[in-house]
Vomeronasal type-1 receptor (Cricetulus griseus), 312 residues
Amino acid sequence: MEASDKAIAVMFSTQTLVGVLGNLSLLCRYMLLCFSGFSFKSTDLILWHMIVANVLTLLCKGVPQTMVALGFKDFLNDFGCKLLVYLHRVGRGVCMSSTCSLSVFQAITISPWNSLWAELKAEAPKYISSSLCLSWILYVLISIFSLMYISANYKNNTKNVKDLGYCFAVRPDKIIYTLYAIIQSVPDLIFVGLMLWASSSMLFTLHRHKQRMQHMPRTNVSSRRSTESRATETILLLVSTFVCSYTLSCMLTLSVTLLLNPSWSLVNMAAIVAGSFPAMSPFLLMRCHNVAHSPCFSWIKTERMSIVLKLT
């Protein structure tokens, strides 16, 4: 085994192990708070789904890529190969939709009472469960198309076959591939657009809130300013990390798809970038736990903060 293969195996295994442990530790923290009688917000359900999607994405991509880098070949049958690719695509899609849902519902929650979203404040939590179920159903159905051109062994017509290391991808004809690309890309673009809009709306609301707080006594502002800045920074880090990793991942994946014989370094780089957000997101969310020993954005629950937001 070459030194480069060992380095790639270390990178994949480290990313997978750290990411899975980070997500599971965040999930355990929620469970401990649940057993302690803590009352959760409705948006915490979104974070639970995000954690499950992150773990699914990391395991279904990181583990087989690590085994390939270590020199293992043909360790999956056709069913196992299709299942791993399918679950990875489902987890990736749900991770994206969960991040979008978190941003949108949070933007509605902290929006001023005189805004256009005021009427949705009381109704929005009722639709969280249904929106999460629809996101799972959406990507469960969309990802079925990937089963058509993924196989563990493919010997005929090798000109249109790409070796992904642990699976073979059979390139369909241009019409089918174009339709699949459109079906796969449209929901992603919609979710990314909604995420950017919701995050911008939250930042604008928090900026107005900060200006409002400057006219309050310093003794009351100091603690709130710290809480507010932490929440703002968490939103910026979470969304910017996702957008950057998603954009770079799309560029690398597109390069791997369009090239007839992509290099192994390009394939491995695309896989590492694809797992960067699921691995980093739990640590970004943990930052918000330090605000008040409660789930993310729980600072909005305080009565004083609610009163100030109503006046903005």
Q: What stands out?
A: Residues 231 and 297 are 7 Å apart (CA to CA). The chain has a mean pLDDT of 77.
